[in-house]
Design brief:
21% of the residues lie in helices and 48% in strands. With 284 residues, it is α+β, with helices and mostly antiparallel strands. The chain is built from three helices and 17 strands. Helix 1 runs antiparallel to helix 2. The protein starts with a strand and ends with a strand.
């Protein structure tokens, strides 16, 4: 049979989300509402949860009043100073107080915004570890969001195979959940350094997530990076190879022109590329 066959590097690893971030609270407060659950899709800025904001709102109102009073005093001192009826010192003090009131108002508004916990990236909610009524503290992890498309497979390749891989090279991925199905991937990044302990180079393969959502982070995957393909070469099933005796041997049916009968003859062959089910015969 004439067919295409490829040589590949096979490595096993676990699939990972391309990006995964923890969502942390930026203030202390009691959880009053949860708007996203694990598995929900989220966009940048979507609200994950809300904290009690009554105290923060009152603080904003107080700071707004103080800012307006500082603004009015500044306006009066500015008008007097411009007509030489007021002192420069009074004008400068009013200006300083206005700037301080403005800064305090902005800080109060920022603190109020912290009572709304939002997602910093688009993706899928993968973790929610708070409940309504919980008290959370500043910098506490309240959940996590991951970007599932694309997924990535990070593998370690030996120095011997490193030279066979380039960015943009095709890869094929299989998972135990669908052993008869292959998924396309592409080499996205190659580490510029070699790990001195293992003598390997990290290669990152990007895997577009299928629409049916079969591929998920954490799945055990086999990654095949195709290094060379031979077109229309002679290939035979692996099961045709005879494992007895020395060398690679197969049985070939040969017919006798005189008798019209035939029999199987043992032949030694030279093997080239192999894949999971086939092998290439170079000679013999």
């Amino acid at each position: 049979l004439r067919a295409d066959i490829s040589q590949y590097i096979l490595k096993n690893t676990a699939l990972e989300a391309e990006r995964w971030v923890e969502i942390r609270s930026r203030t202390t407060g009691q959880v009053v509402a949860i708007l996203k659950e694990e598995g929900d899709p989220v966009k940048v800025g979507n609200v994950i949860a809300r904290l009690d904001s009554d105290g923060a709102r009152i603080n904003v109102l107080q700071r707004e009043v103080a800012f307006r009073e500082a603004q009015q005093r500044h306006d009066r001192e500015s008008a007097l100073f411009s007509r030489n009826l007021g002192s420069k010192e009074g004008f400068e003090n009013a200006k300083t107080q206005l700037e301080a009131a403005k800064a305090q108002l902005e800080q109060a508004q920022l603190s109020l915004s912290y009572t709304t916990i939002t997602s910093p990236i688009a993706g899928v909610m993968t973790l929610r570890n708070i409940e309504v009524g919980n008290m959370v503290t500043n910098n506490q992890v309240v959940g996590a969001v991951a970007k599932f498309d694309p997924l990535v497979a990070r593998i370690q390749v030996t120095e011997k195979d490193f030279g066979k891989i380039v960015v943009g090279q095709a890869a094929r991925i299989t998972v135990e959940a669908a052993p008869d199905r292959g998924f396309e991937g592409i080499v996205k990044m190659i580490s510029p350094v070699v790990d001195p302990e293992s003598g390997t180079v990290k290669v990152t393969v990007e895997v577009p997530r299928p629409k049916d959502g079969l591929l998920r982070p954490g799945m055990f995957a086999s990654v095949y990076i195709i290094t060379e393909t031979r077109k229309r070469t002679l290939v035979i099933p692996k099961k045709a190879l005879v494992l007895e005796g020395a060398g690679n041997q197969v049985f070939v049916y040969e017919s006798d022109a005189e008798t019209g009968m035939g029999k199987a003859q043992r032949k030694t062959v030279e093997i080239g590329f192999t894949d999971s089910e086939r092998l290439e015969v170079l000679s013999g």
